[in-house]
Amino acid sequence: MNIFKPKKNFSLKAYNTFGIDQVAENFISVNNLDELRKVLADYADESLFVLGGGSNLLLTRDVPGLTLHIGLKGKEIVDADYTKNHVLIKAMAGEVWHEFVLWTLENGLGGLENLSLIPGNVGAAPIQNIGAYGVELKDTFERCEAMEIKTGLVRAFSKTDCQFDYRHSIFKTKLKNKYIITAVYFKLTKQNHQLKTEYGTIQAELAQQGVKNQAPSTISKAVISIRQQKLPDPKIIGNSGSFFKNPVIEKALFQSLTDKYPEMPFYEAGDLIKIPAAWLIEQAGYKGKRFGDAGVHDKQALVLVNHGNAKGQDILSLSEKIQQSVFEKFGIQLTPEVNIYP
Ligand code: FAD
Ligand code: NAP
Question: Which pTM value belongs to this model?
């Protein structure tokens, strides 16, 4: 018998930052591990859709079966003397990422400052190894705990187990739909913080703010300010951040493209070259464009937006049109970063 009464035909509009109005056949939010285990057992025969903050998601149809919102809360310093210079922190999957980052800063800890103001919850952060301003989750990640959907058993995953890469982890491939991340552990600095300010406009922002003594908290403030100026606030205009990954291309293709487009921005990425997808989309003529209520943000072309009542299919069609135009112009295939359901 199901002890957790699901909300039936429940609108997910407020549960995804694109603001797409699709409906969950059954919706349950769980607050502790026992509830999670019980619900997984009760709904073992139903299709399962796991939801965090809904900020990396495009719903293109209603969700049958069970939509399971992970509401596990709690954060603590597990070991204040993990090493001479580090503490070990544990955060439960349902903690709001940015609130968690601010809490680490209030405790004088360093490591997560460049990842300030990223929407979503802690549990989804390892899924795509969230990254911004030259820092990725993997840089401070120690381990995570995850419940196997089939058995309800909780297992620990080390950094190596997670196979982190650029916007990627094993939870997007081999272990997709097999585990629910329940908690994440971070190794953060107490002092001698390793500040990273060379990326993007952080230095310029710090100078503008008149910051003389750089610290994790001042870097965080700079990052927040830059993001607020450039990125659309999902509370005001629906979006899921960068819709596509930045492509990394072979040097031969890069050479032929720079011959034709000498102004093309690029960054070395090992043996490959990373090209900002936003530049490609802008060159293809889409920056600020609007097709009904589906559009491309006017300050950051990598962000697709919902101007009001766009359907997931409208956003998806626009994304496919962009992919086709970019491919025709540059021979580069853009890959979505956003999780498209189904
Ligand atoms: P959701 O969208 O709820 O879920 C994402 C995926 O993970 C889904 O497939 C879901 O099924 C799965 N999932 C969720 N929780 C769990 C769990 N506990 N266990 C297993 N699977 C789970 N991302 C960056 O990397 N860097 C950025 O700088 C950045 N900036 C953004 C800016 C804006 C304005 C927005 C809207 C998004 C941005 N993002 C960024 C994308 C997004 O915020 C992150 O990917 C975030 O980690 C998603 O968290 P979420 O809880 O909202 O995940
Ligand atoms: P930006 O600073 O305008 O830079 C454009 C792109 O160039 C970025 O995507 C970044 O790639 C790359 N880049 C810039 N400086 C770089 C450097 N020194 N070395 C290597 N690559 C560099 O980007 P933005 O749109 O304002 O975003 C700022 C940061 O926040 C970026 O790291 C971006 O990834 C992150 N962000 C992510 C999302 C998301 O949803 N995933 C949304 C908003 C912002 P990378 O993306 O590889 O860093």
Answer: 0.97
230 lines ligand 2 (CB under 6 A): yes
The backbone torsions φ and ψ at residue 105, rounded to the nearest 5 degrees and listed phi first, read: -70, -40
Which of 70, 99, 119 is a domain's end point?
70
Same domain, 192 and 87: yes
Provide the residue range defining the domain that includes 248. 238-341
Which residues are annotated as catalytic? Answer: 167, 242, 337
Domain total for the chain? 3
pLDDT tens digit sequence for 246-302: 999 999 999 999 999 999 999 999 999 999 999 999 999 999 999 999 999 999 999
Q: For a pocket test of ligand 1, which of 48, 60, 118, 230 has the largest count of ligand atoms closer than 8 A to its C-beta?
A: 118
E strands, the chain, are: 7-11, 23-30, 48-51, 57-59, 63-70, 75-79, 86-92, 131-132, 135-136, 141-148, 154-158, 179-189, 238-242, 248-249, 267-269, 272-274, 290-291, 294-296, 303-306, 339-341
- 91 & 162 share domain: yes
- Pair (150, 223) in one structural domain: yes
Sequence-ordered list of residues with C-beta below 8 angstroms from that of 257, at least 6 positions apart, any chain = 249, 264, 275, 330, 331
Ligand 2 lined by 204 (C-beta under 6 Å) = no
| Domain at 318, CATH number | 3.90.78.10
177 and 59 within one domain: no
